[in-house]
Structure formats: C-alpha cells, structure tokens
Amino acid sequence: MLKIAVCQLPLNIETPDENLRLAESAIRQAAASGAELVVLPELTNSGYVFRSLEEVKERATTLDGPVIAKWSELAREFGITIVGGLAINHDETFFNTSVIIDESGLRGWYKKVHFWNDEPDFFIPGSDEPLVIDTKFGRLATMVCYDLEFTEWVRLPFLADAVILALPTNWPYGGLPTEPTPMESVRVQAAASQNRMVVAAADRVGQERGVDWSSASIIADADGVIRAISDRTKLSEVQILLADVEVPTDRKIGPRNDLRTDRRPELYGKVLNS
Questions:
Q1: End-to-end Cα distance, the chain
Q2: Are the C-beta atoms of residues 232 and 178 closer than 8 Å to each other?
Q3: Contacts 24+ apart (CB under 8 A), 120-123
C-alpha cells in the first residue's frame, strides 16, 4: 500500500512568499502523517491570475533556484517524493510545469501542453509527452490540470506503464454543480478507471482576483473509486487529503479482460489523426 497526500492550499498571486510557506508546512504535515508521495497544486509558487508577463517573471523560479532546492531538502529529510506545480523561468522563457522531486533531488520536469483561457498570454506550451519515472513505489507520471481532459494524452502514461498519475491543478469554478461530486473529480475517477492508474489531483482554494476555484482535490484508486476527496464545508482553508492506496501491478479488470491486451489500436487511427 502507498500512502498519498494531496495538499489543497489557499494560494494567492499577491503573496508568493506565503504560498511557499504554506507548501512547506503542508509537506511537513503530510510527511508527519506518513505520506510517501505528496502532491501540491498547479503554480504553487506564483498563483494563477496574472495581469502581465512581468508578474510571471517576478514570481517564476528556475530549475536550480531556491524552491526546487528547498523541496529537494524536504524530500531528503523525510524520504518522500514530491510532485508540485511551478512557474519556471528557463532561459527567459516561462513554462507552467510539474516537477517530480525525491531524495536524490529533481527527477524531471514537465511543461503543460494544453492551455486554459489566458495561459497562452504568459506561458509557452510544452511539446513533450507526460513525464514518467521509476520510483520505489512504481512508475509515476505527471501532467498539469487541463491536460487530464484529453483522453489520448492520459493514455500515454498508461502505455509507458505508469501506475500512478500525480496531477497539480488549478480548476476555476465554472458554475457546474459540485454535489454530490464536482465534475473535475469525476474526470479524475474516469481517468483512473479507464487506465487502471491511481490518480491524485491537488487543486487549490481561496478567491484570487475575483476567481473562485472548484477545490476538487481527490485521490482515486485504479478502479476509479474515491479514496479521499476535499471537504466542501472547508473551502477556505488548507486541507491535506490522505489515503492508503493499492498500487496496481497489472491492467486486469476481470478474469478474461485486460485493458492493455484488449485494446484494438489498429482501429483507432481516425481518432488519433483527425
């Protein structure tokens, strides 16, 4: 069993230093609770609702900067793996990213591919497949927020034998009902079930420059069953979701069915090429 922590934080673009303080506190609390994998929201260091590229530049970190150095120190201290969303300045180009960090330091970084709303005004989209690495608890993948809604994209970690998908996200509230389950959380369940992967999504809370958030953090097991989900009576405060989840060892969903061997990719060309 793997103990996962998803940290739902009240991030604010006006207080980047406080964002990082909250993230460190959440990592420490999650580790103290026994978490082996800790997932943080999208753009944890910066907030989301930018008004200018200058604001991005002021808040972005670098691959060799203090944020990744600090998270690497925490990963070594507690023997954990951290996945978190960061605004990264790489050679004066800005990316919305997810990083994977463990006791050895930065294992890799992924640049968000599918952009929502104003993101193209501030970031350059990535063109690499979702990051997938080997860890002590299995093959771990990451992508960012809106990427999850493209089923072909989520299939790539499946084909790379990932068994866990960690998703930093900032889901703006779009007016859809949140009871009994927010639609964003339902999409996580579907991705988990369709790919037989554990999916852990870290959303955020708090109003930011007039934008409200779905606050739909969730941990779903490889059957799509909810193992932890945000408490909708506490949507203005830090929540750390914890769940012990069995990591799948195969893609079997029944005595005669396997999600990998039952595929018919020779018939899917129209979907992939249209």
A1: 40
A2: yes
A3: 121/50, 121/53, 122/50, 122/53, 122/56, 122/94, 123/56, 123/87, 123/94, 123/95, 123/96
Q: What are phi and psi of 133, to 5 degrees?
A: -130, 160
The Cα 24–Cα 1 span in angstroms is: 25
CA distance 107 to 47: 23
One-letter amino acid of 180: P
pTM reported for the whole predicted model: 0.96
* Predicted pLDDT of residue 269: 87
* Measured distance CA(103)–CA(121) in Å, rounded: 35
Residues 232-237: what's their mean pLDDT? Answer: 86
Task: Lowest mean pLDDT of 20-24, 51-55, 177-181, name the range.
Answer: 177-181
Biggest alpha carbon–alpha carbon distance for the chain: 56
Tokens of 112: 């968000």
Tens digit of pLDDT for each residue in 187-210? 999 999 999 999 999 999 989 999
Mean pLDDT of the chain: 96
Q: Domain residue spans in the chain?
A: 2-273
78-113 per-residue burial string, b: 16 or more CB within 10 A, e: under 16: bebbbbbbbbbbeeeebbbbbbbbbeeebbebbbbb
Q: What letter represents residue 107's amino acid?
A: R
State how far the Cα of 240 lies from the Cα of 31, in Å rounded to an integer: 11
CA distance 140 to 125: 22
CATH of domain 2-273: 3.60.110.10
